[in-house]
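agent> fetching stored inputs for the flavin-adenine dinucleotide docking request
agent> found them:
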Amino acid sequence: MIAGMEDARNARSDERRDAAMTEKDRDTCALVETTDVLIIGAGPAGLWAMFEAGVIGLRCVALDALDRVGGQCTELYPDKPIYDIPAVPRCSAQDLVDRLLEQCAPFGFPIHLGQRADALERVGERWRVTSREGRIFDTAAVMIAAGNGAFEPQRVALPEAASLEGRSLHYAVRQAERFRGRRVLIAGGGDSALDWALALRGIATHITLLHRRANFRAAPATAAAVKAAEQAGQIDFVVGTLDALHETADVLTGARVKTLEGERELAFDELIALFGLVPDLGPIAGWPLDARAGRIPVDTSNYETALPGVFAIGDIALYDNKQKLILSAFHEGSLALRKAYAYAFPDRQRTHVHSSYDTALQKKLGQPTA
Ligand SMILES: Cc1cc2nc3c(=O)[nH]c(=O)nc-3n(C[C@H](O)[C@H](O)[C@H](O)COP(=O)(O)OP(=O)(O)OC[C@H]3O[C@@H](n4cnc5c(N)ncnc54)[C@H](O)[C@@H]3O)c2cc1C
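agent> prediction call returned; pasting tokens
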């Protein structure tokens, strides 16, 4: 692709977007990010779709509700080996994600993390997606690669928990320093809970780890380190479950805990609840896409949904004989992107050039041209 031609294409795309804008939109224009394809979800399906967007010459932006890319691979089984990726006899799930990121890196497309797509709106012939966090994306096509939904923390099931969230009740640790000089209760028995119990030693003034069983669901080495820290008096470990949270003048002061022996009071300033993540399709389930049990029906010739220019790929796509496999997600993304091209550039005919012969692509990828 000659640079001038690409500029002209982008200018035409911008013209179409501008025509679709209302006056109010123009006022908020600075807040709107414009692209050819918006990819919702940066799991394997979304990351591969980013690469394919770059290959066929589309601009692309991705977002993910989580604060890191990789979807299920990173969240659920990073260290497990995968054996069924073509031409890759064995790699860990995290390794696969790292390789996908490396593959799409030359295009420099932005990935907005910690952004959950909440609203979908038709604006002229384009789509507008708004995130829960307030970002607005104006796009010719939408690629829903949302897997089983956005992973959300499993919350404390007590009525008083909601009002404490974001103040003294935390579902993730963004900055360890936030807990300096505080008495902290960490609830949970998985890797995250144990890792943070260990990491906050020397930062928090007191750490109590609360888990419903004496055994942990964590890596044996981490569990052994926690037991050693308990014996050294660095961490208190309590077997039990939260029964009530106590507040005085809107300030968290402690909790009543149910243990095998009965009830017990614990005093602390901050509660970090790390019970794991649960997938939640959230507002996408309410988009007019005929979602069934959290999955979106598609046309298998191009993975388009019932809405023109809105595609569903990866685990979220629903069709006869669909297999929830990374291999299938790659195929679906490749076909969907080619149809998405027609929405971004309806007046252009795309000619396919194999990557082995595509010198323009090779340049974009920073490779010596063949
Ligand atoms: C334990 C385990 C082992 C597996 N082993 C294999 C294997 O060996 N081989 C194989 O092929 N497959 C395997 N799979 C399946 C494979 O991981 C999935 O098929 C694959 O992850 C699907 O990719 P995806 O991108 O469609 O969805 P996901 O990986 O689920 O990614 C979806 C992403 O979308 C984000 N998201 C969702 N909703 C929103 C929203 N509204 N806004 C913003 N972001 C959102 C999520 O946060 C998530 O990051 C395994 C799965 C598990 C659980």
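agent> quick read of the result: The chain has a mean pLDDT of 90.
agent> awaiting further instructions
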